[in-house]
Amino acid sequence: MIRKLTPFILLFSFATFGQKQELSTSSEKEYDPLQPSRAAFYSAVLPGLGQIYNKRYWKLPIVYGGIGASIYFYDLNNIKFRQYRNAYKRRLAGFADDEFQGIIIDNDRLVDGMNFYKQYRDQSMLFVIGTYFLNILDANIDAHLKQYNLNQNLSLKSYIDFHSVVADHHVGVSLNFNF
Questions:
Q1: Which are the contacts of 135, defined by CB distance < 8 A and separation ≥ 6?
Q2: pLDDT interval class at 29 (50, 70, 90)
Q3: What are phi and psi of 172, to 5 degrees?
Q4: CA–CA separation, 173 vs 165, rounded Å?
Q5: Contact (CB, 8 A) for 42 and 49
Q6: How many Å apart are CA 60 and CA 64, to the nearest integer?
């Protein structure tokens, strides 16, 4: 009798094993605790890669636009800083053939211009670094928020109400929670 039931027992055990595997893979898709760290790592390696990992492709122009604009202004301010610095150094060495000679800029104005462009060059580098870190932070937070279950039981809606008697607008926010 046991020999007759053996194929059914094996079939039943394989069927239940397959179902357990299927349930565990579907629960892994719903919640992956390493997903935020992967997204942050990808964004740290190459800016924008974490947004691609999170399938938020529309954020790529924002990331690259922010980093690109910051690098552009860094380079522009660095070129102007070097122009003023080189002209000032040449004047201190006794040469009078710099590009600012025709405009009649004295040494004090050269120092002021050098300090001005140095300050904005340094600020542009801070914007490059800040945009890079915001890119990593955005990828991490976005990956965390993708794992939350959002449904129609909780809604936050804005409203504008117009009173015709007093001709006044009332603006507010409505929070609805359904059980």
A1: 43, 47, 48, 50, 51, 63, 66, 67
A2: low
A3: -160, -175
A4: 22
A5: yes
A6: 6
